Amino acid sequence: KWMIWHHELVLRSDVRVSPDDRGYVFGDGIYEVFRVYDGRIFEPEAHFERLIRTAEGTKLTLPYDTASIQRRLEELLDREGVRDGTIYLQITRGEAPRAHPFPAGAEPNLMAYCKELARPSEAMSRGISAVTLDDIRWLRCDLKTLNLLPNVLAKQEAVERGADDAIWHRSGTVTECSASNVMMVKDGIVRTHPANHLILHGITRAVVLRLAKRLEVPVREEAFTLEELASADELFGTGTTIEVMPIVGVDGRPVGNGQPGPVTRKLQQAFEEEIA
Ligand code: PDD
């Protein structure tokens, strides 16, 4: 019932967004999704670093410093009593009559809300299915902007084809999923697309790579092809809401033996300990 609007905790029912908000008319804004475990924000520094990078990449000036935004988010969690859930934070370039150039003098609009969300335990133990789709996005997928139409269309196509998610590829090179990163395992080696302009630099991705190194699981940040994916022993997605999610079927064919594999399990276990 409470949310953050600009820099204040307000009742959700009191927030009014202008039809001139550039987030609304142009998708001209940026966002973050934070995970909350046991009342605490998971990996806040990494999320705020990414927010700063995205703000710089979109020439959007953050209206408040990230330390004070974080304090507000923590107040919000307290007020709402959320223990396990997510926080959605969005900042748009503000309100102005519709014209493409940046408006002079417009103040960015910041809003955030939190909600309870259970961990996807059942899906994590069973695994999910995916379809492969052409990655039709622009060339700055490392920026976490509000322009999510390709992501929405990909997820919808996956759902319509009876799958849980979409795995994107550019001319046969696998990039990521519609709202998560993707890693394959072959002969005990974890492979994932390098963190360049073609993927979002997932916070969960970074945590999982760190855990893999700690466990001495070999990791290669090298892109893989659809052919390599087809011969993968294991496949999994990583993301704020899905954590480490086994992908056990792709385009109607099983991955490996069609069950979550041992490397995936090991990383899930390590992730579990990391958030405990
Ligand atoms: N999605 N790739 C894309 C395209 C994403 O949208 C996301 C996150 C990720 C994973 O990043 P992280 O581990 O930092 O959550 C990768 C969020 C959760 C969303 O849009 O809802």
TrEMBL record:
Keywords: Aminotransferase, Pyridoxal phosphate, Transferase. It comes from Paenibacillus chartarius. This is D-alanine aminotransferase. Pfam families: Aminotran_4. It catalyses: D-alanine + 2-oxoglutarate = D-glutamate + pyruvate. One of its GO terms (molecular function) is D-alanine-2-oxoglutarate aminotransferase activity. Homodimer. Its EC number is 2.6.1.21. Belongs to the class-IV pyridoxal-phosphate-dependent aminotransferase family. Transmembrane segments: none annotated. Its cofactor is pyridoxal 5'-phosphate. InterPro entries: Aminotrans_IV (IPR001544), Aminotransferase-like (IPR036038), BCAT-like_C (IPR043132), BCAT-like_N (IPR043131), Class-IV_PLP-Dep_Aminotrnsfr (IPR050571), D_amino_transT (IPR005784).
